[in-house]
Amino acid sequence: MQHFKTLSAYLEYLELPSPEHPMLSVFPAIGEGFLPCHKESSPPITNDCYSISFKKIIKGDLNYGRTTYDFTNGVLFFIAPRQVLQWDNSAVFEQKGFSINFHKDFLKGTELAHQIKKYGFFSYSVNEALHLSPKEEKQIASIVANIEIEYQNNQDEFSKDIIISQLSTLLKYANRFYERQFLNRKELSTSLLEQFNEQLSQYVESGQLQKNGIPSIEQIADKMGISQRYLSDTLKKETGKTTTEHLQLLLIDEAKNMLLHPSKSIAEVAYELGFEYPHYFSRLFKKKEGISPTAYREKFSVN
């Protein structure tokens, strides 16, 4: 897989204009302008840059992930360094918007270098992008305009600090808008929870739990066609529980049924549930149920 260590090399590969700054590029197309078109297709590639892009479809229809969205309001998405990128030429669109690309070293020595790692949306897939309302679009556009001014001006000792400050503001607004999107998509959240539970049930019923052990959240998310981070964030907003907690609840429910068979030892139950160490299973069971597996079995047999 081809990897690009510099911003210039990455943009050259995309067939886009060279950057004005060795570690930062801004392609503004606010208003009536259009984004420059990058190469039509690419095999999987990676790079050392962050990307923040806003695209507004002018012509063409597009199914985004598993859902059809109204793209006239625009979509904002984020890409972190080392994420695998791939696209084809199956559809052609004219796009308004902007694209900000900056090398990870551009943030070195700044507070944003640490803050940016906390923004989960850099781990989301493209079909989990942020859909902006017209009001939100204007707010983001004003921030990008400020970044563009500094980018186009002659660089001085204040330029980088101002750009970093504006990038930080943009990400804070994006975080706020994602919170709004999570709250407004309860139907999707419910659907994701149902799909998540269905995937877990199929895993257990097919015998994979005993054979391969407890599945990772990433495995389940891949089966669902979404990113691990987005799945966890969505379920957390809607149910108050993380994907790991939902997985543990299902395992505990399975354990309760298995503990009804007195012929099986606690260790055998643990192993059949995919736990490598029985004592870990016992600790988890007691944490969730308030009593040990042994005590639960005794309590049930008495009742």
Automatic annotation (TrEMBL):
The keyword Chaperone does not apply. InterPro entries: Homeodomain-like_sf (IPR009057), HTH_AraC (IPR018060), Tscrpt_reg_AraC-type_HTH (IPR020449). One of its GO terms (molecular function) is sequence-specific DNA binding. The keyword Transcription applies. Residues 198-299 form the HTH araC/xylS-type domain. Keywords: DNA-binding, Transcription, Transcription regulation. This is Transcriptional regulator, AraC family.
